[in-house]
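ligand=adenosine-5'-diphosphate
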Amino acid sequence: MSLIEGRAVCRYFGGVNALANVNFAIEKGSIVGLIGPNGAGKTTLFNVMAGTIKPTTGRILFHGEDVTDQPAYRICRKGIARTFQIPRPFGTMTCLENVVVGIINNLNGPYVKSDVEDKARIALKFVGLGDLIATEARNLNVVQKKKLEIARALATGPEILLLDEVLGGLNTQEIGEAIEFIRLLRDKQNITIFWIEHIMGAIMQAAERVIVLDQGTVLMEGTPREVVSDQRVIRAYLGE
Amino acid sequence: MSQTKKICCVAALAIVLLSLLPWSLGVYKLHVMIVCFFYVMMAASWNLIAGYTGQVSFGHAAFAGIGAYASALLSLKAGVSPWIGVILGTLIAAVLGFCLGVICLKMGGIYLSLTTLGFSAIIQIVIINEYEITRGTMGLQVPGFFAEYSKLSYYYLLLIGALITLAVVYAAIHSRLGVNFRAVQNDERAAASLGVNVVRVRVLAFTISSALAGFAGGLYGHYLLLITPEIPSLDQQFLVLSMTVIGGMGSFAGPIIGAFSLEILSEYIRVYGEYHVLVFGLVALVAARFAPRGIVGIAQDIGMVKRLRRLMAPAVRGRA
Ligand SMILES: Nc1ncnc2c1ncn2[C@@H]1O[C@H](COP(=O)(O)OP(=O)(O)O)[C@@H](O)[C@H]1O
Ligand SMILES: [Mg+2]
């Protein structure tokens, strides 16, 4: 059984078919890239998977269980975490408090404040925000806000992490480090990664499979190599 | 933690001063202080929902009215002691707050404001028109807490009531729940994506806040000995709102400062007629626009500027 599966997922916004009959399946422990031109429906698919918005029709299955009608907070507690393409930090709260939110709403044991804060500190250090623990999130720059998105999402203890364009604003070296970081998440913490990215090189290096969306439908799916040499993909990206 | 220690010191000092203060006050000033305590309770509990979760309720005065009339009627019709009456009045306000919260907080945003505005109007109309039970605008005579009426006893009672309210608010905002309050206020969608049950958090905040308003109303009613539909009026609501906004929404000290300063100020300007609520409302509007963190925010900003100056001073001198 796949870890997470989408069946005939459709989402309409007025006349726009952001998602039109999308089918996909992601295996546990894999790194899967999601690519496609602007407006292809990638973010909308993440929103639907995370329960942030509901599909017009279609189903999302997690561990074979239909979670389509569950509210976002329950989907998170089941083990699906996501970042937002445009970061949505809790601006008036410190970085530490931002991460604490993710931890305290996904506790299995009793609540011990000092333990929670230790855990949050570790999560922040892990993404490279160790020096900004007490900084209010609104004072971060965009790259730092994206790191905070990841720290918060990881703090919920997910089985699968949905990353929405987290590499924007990084230089070549930092991109390399970020790819290492994402691999580490999968290898050491056994977190499945579903990853939207514009930077093709990064996807090519890290992902094992790639799904290509175009105008709300799956254009093709395959290994990175297959995808970049496919005529339809090249046309979708280059031909207008 | 020096921050916590500092807060404890300030609180202890304030409590000692406030317990010694009445020996130097006359009857009139004692009364003003008692009313201040009532408004501290009202503003601090309204701040919990409005300042910490960003949900503006217009039903806070109505819940105070529910607490006051529930306790009064229980003691008048059922012979319940006012002490028990206040507790029951608090519970009734909590239950009604919970029901109202469940009905309209799912929708979020402006719906709580609209629903509580309507609720508030209904409560007042019912109290005015159910003359047989509530004596309408004539007012309902209610028994006091003490066999012998003394302003001093009420001073301490309301002081303790205010301390209880502040303790509950403090505990709420410094608990796990408080972190969720602020997360929800900042960004509901992001909060939900991190596992926060947004509706539950909002309903809880509204229930606690409404219960505390009921508690305040109950105590106040048995102090006044005559309760009227003035307690659950929109005038009262806007006064509480103004106190919180001017003092500083979303800060612990803000509503306390706002309640004392506006209540004492309104005693001075009352001679010019009952326009003070209107004036406060206008000032609150201006504050919300230009100083959204109120007096507390302004004080913090001044403190920051001073600290910066002190830090800069050696550098400036060095250059000269
Ligand atoms: N909340 C919304 N309301 C209306 N239209 C939307 C909304 N969200 C997305 N869309 C539309 O759906 C399409 C897909 O958007 P999106 O999923 O953000 O694309 P991508 O992330 O692939 O760039 C776009 O045409 C976009 O304008
Ligand atoms: Mg997008």
